[in-house]
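F.,

This is the one I mentioned.
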């Protein structure tokens, strides 16, 4: 009874750059991201056999409540002249078409104003029964792994064919930390891609020492002030110097788990009486075997 949560932007960017740009509709609209997204989703459904599925979207990729706390959050991704994340010109027109296709298939699509897709997925993982598989190319969701509730990350950094299924043991081995402390580790280490500096002077090695010996930022600060033997004087000094950042970083770095989700049917869609509309859409946009593979994966 698996719930599959798709980090849609992660998938369509991966599809866009992984599929040839020669894939176009009969009237010349690029469809490489659409076809790649549908192909990946079909393969994931066939592999993990979920009974529920949600395509999750950013309601806002820079939520106001994160930016108010830390104005530099994802600021490096802003265009020089605007307030929108830069997106390839030939990807932008594909997204509405893809969302229309997902709607035709009956796959739930959910984005919530002022929250990122990560927050939407985290909240679903928090409130829904497992097993849960979160599909993403982003490490941020590593903080959600939970072996007891069977929450794992289908991590696509190496591509779908060579993807990792991330659990507590994976996180522990990769970062040399307790596997349930990835968020704490990330707070201290930082993430340049999100404009998050971490605590100045503390890299991955120092963050791992902290996450191994303390469970919260408050514990780490208390340990630094108490000259805890697990911390070198230099590392303790850096933690104390970063106290202002540590006041706001947990809220910025940790995913929200209380997003006001809409009431939607998450069930894997059942075969409609008539598939003609989907086939017409397929022909209109030249989506070929990608639509056929999705139909097959859904058992239609």
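My design for it:
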């Amino acid at each position: 009874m698996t719930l599959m949560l798709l980090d849609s932007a992660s998938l369509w960017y991966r599809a866009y750059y992984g599929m040839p740009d020669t894939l176009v509709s009969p009237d010349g609209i690029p469809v490489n991201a659409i076809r790649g997204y549908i192909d990946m989703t079909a393969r994931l459904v066939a592999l993990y056999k979920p009974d529920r599925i949600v395509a999750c979207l950013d309601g806002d990729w820079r939520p106001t409540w994160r930016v108010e706390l830390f104005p530099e959050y994802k600021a490096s991704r802003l265009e020089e002249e605007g307030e929108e994340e830069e997106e390839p010109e030939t990807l932008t027109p594909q997204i509405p078409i893809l969302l229309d296709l997902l709607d035709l298939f009956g796959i739930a699509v959910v984005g919530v104003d002022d929250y990122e897709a990560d927050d939407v997925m985290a909240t679903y993982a928090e409130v829904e029964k497992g097993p849960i598989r979160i599909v993403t190319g982003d490490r941020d969701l590593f903080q959600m792994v939970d072996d007891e509730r069977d929450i794992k990350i289908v991590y696509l950094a190496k591509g779908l064919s060579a993807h990792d299924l991330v659990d507590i043991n994976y996180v522990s081995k990769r970062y040399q930390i307790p596997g349930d402390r990835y968020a704490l580790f990330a707070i201290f280490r930082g993430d340049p891609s999100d404009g998050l500096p971490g605590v100045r002077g503390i890299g991955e090695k120092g963050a791992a020492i902290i996450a191994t010996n303390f469970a919260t930022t408050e514990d780490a600060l208390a340990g630094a002030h108490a000259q805890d033997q697990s911390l070198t004087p230099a590392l303790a000094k850096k933690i104390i110097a970063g106290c202002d950042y540590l006041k706001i970083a947990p809220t910025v770095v940790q995913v929200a788990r209380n997003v006001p989700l809409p009431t939607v049917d998450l069930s894997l869609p059942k075969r409609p009486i008539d598939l003609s509309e989907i086939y017409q859409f397929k022909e209109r946009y030249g989506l070929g075997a990608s639509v056929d593979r999705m139909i097959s994966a859904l058992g239609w």
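The first strand starts at residue 3 and ends at 7.

Talk soon.
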